[in-house]
């Protein structure tokens, strides 16, 4: 009995020694890493806390106003009025950009006038422009435009999976995954079997091509105008999208998907095949 009592006492001593050692180790780790935790705090110059003063460092040196992607989400969730200004090249903008953002190359910023004067302007830039954003900052400051640069630029948006509008890259697995296809025959079958379902053929060819011939009762929005005219589309409607080629329909469907239209089918056939499938065609009249 006495032997068992001594064993239990020895076990308790070992347990206390282990817990004490672990506590000392944790305190040491915290003291060592404390400076790192302090430096990891979010920037204070976000739209939720911005004032009329210029952000400054601890040494009083002027800093550029930056905002992280996470803080953009937070500001939007708080109802802050943000407008996105993309200063990259036209080619880069057309390839991918924030939906409904405004494109103004940096060399034209001196004449830029915001669409909404009471909004914070969020600047999208590429990393090869990192050395010129100071000049951009001074230009916008002189125009009294409150603004922030996205920390990390366009790459940060892509890394954080921020919603972007793609032009529709057929070599992109991500873009291909956004599209569901109908052949012309399948589209005709859908029409016949869903007479009480609301659907519209969306013709993404030019207005001239549409005027020459188009699917009966189709709506015409040229491919390049989908983003600007998307507000005219009812999101509860199924859109059967077609163009001159399968690529046209694919790219239109990608853009609609990126604009959060869920009911979209891209018709993989050309207009002549659509007519051959028995889908009614109107000729010589525009809508």
Low-confidence stretches: 1-10, 29-61
**How many helices does DSSP assign?**
11
Q: Measured on Cα atoms, how large is the radius of gyration? A: 29 Å
Distance linking N and C termini:
101 Å
| Average pLDDT figure | 84
Domain count, please report it.
Answer: 2
Please name the CATH topology of the largest domain: Oxidized Rhodanese, domain 1
Order of helices and strands: HEHEHEEEHEHEHEHEHEEHEHEHE
The CATH homologous superfamily of the largest domain corresponds to: Rhodanese-like domain
Shape from CA axes?
Answer: elongated
The count of β-strands is 14
CATH class of the largest domain: Alpha Beta
Strand content: 15-25%
The CATH architecture of the largest domain would be: 3-Layer(aba) Sandwich
Helical content class: 25-40%
Structural class: alpha/beta
Please outline the major beta sheet. Answer: 5 strands, parallel
Strand order of the largest sheet: 1-6-5-2-4
Helices, strands, pairings?
Elements: H1 2-39, E1 66-67, H2 69-77, E2 82-86, H3 90-95, E3 96-97, E4 102-103, E5 120-124, H4 133-142, E6 147-150, H5 153-159, E7 165-166, H6 173-176, E8 181-182, H7 184-193, E9 199-203, H8 207-212, E10 213-215, E11 219-220, H9 226-229, E12 238-242, H10 246-258, E13 264-267, H11 271-276, E14 281-283
Parallel strand pairs: 1-6, 2-4, 2-5, 5-6, 8-13, 9-11, 9-12, 12-13
Antiparallel strand pairs: 3-7, 10-14
